Amino acid sequence: MRGGTPREPRQATGAPVPRMLDSAAARPTGSAVERTAVDVAVGVLFDRAGRFLLTSRPSGKVYAGHWEFPGGKLEAGESVETALRRELHEELGITIGAVHPWKVELIDYPHDRVRLHFCKVFEWSGAFEMRERQQMSWQRLPVDVAPVLPGTLPVLRWLAEEAA
């Protein structure tokens, strides 16, 4: 590009492409800028048929319409489990059973750096209510919803590795 600053890479949807992090260095690859990561509790819910739940991001949020595993930011003093229980009740109207911490992934989005704490959940009570006017879909690999939030891609890879 001549004269001017380079543009951020974009996905086909027009959304900025996040920088995946070098897990060994825990910093964005190709960037010397350090940002404090925001901790996010994420639920990977499995039904009795072995399908997992994806929800769409609501209108008005970054990456609106992208599919992701449900969850949200930890509030001050909250544990991952407490935050996940609160978020899934607030967003989906369910009360979850046991929380099984699984994996942690750092992702550097253009708008924020997040530390995603993925937890598996196999039991819950209550009827699903899409309280943020989002959509939900029970999925198997390969998923048939699109676009998928970049932070969801590592989980899909891990699930494929576990199934192999």
Shape: globular
Q: Would you identify the CATH H-level superfamily? A: Nucleoside Triphosphate Pyrophosphohydrolase
Quaternary structure: single chain
Q: Low-confidence runs (pLDDT<50, min 5 residues)?
A: 1-15, 19-30
CATH architecture: Alpha-Beta Complex
Q: Which class of secondary structure composition applies to the elements?
A: alpha+beta
Beta content: 25-35%
Q: How confident overall, as mean pLDDT? A: 86
Number of strands: 11
Structure explained in plain terms:
The protein has a single domain, classed as Alpha-Beta Complex (Nucleoside Triphosphate Pyrophosphohydrolase). It contains two helices and eleven strands; from the N terminus they run E-E-E-E-E-E-H-E-E-E-E-E-H. The chain has helices spanning 80-92, 153-163, and strands spanning 19-22, 27-28, 38-45, 52-56, 67-68, 71-73, 95-96, 99-108, 113-121, 124-125, 136-139. The strands form three sheets. A six-stranded mixed beta sheet has the order 2-1-8-9-3-6, with helices on one face. Strands 5-4-11 form a three-stranded antiparallel beta sheet, with no helix packed on it. Strands 7-10 form a two-stranded antiparallel ribbon. Mean pLDDT is 86; it is low at 1-15 and 19-30.
Main features:
single chain, 164 residues, alpha+beta, Nucleoside Triphosphate Pyrophosphohydrolase, 6-stranded mixed β-sheet, 3-stranded antiparallel β-sheet, 11 strands, 15% helix, disordered N terminus
Task: Write a short abstract of this structure.
This protein is of the alpha+beta class. The chain is built from two helices and eleven strands; from the N terminus they run ββββββαβββββα. A hairpin with a 4-residue loop joins strand 1 (19-22) and strand 2.
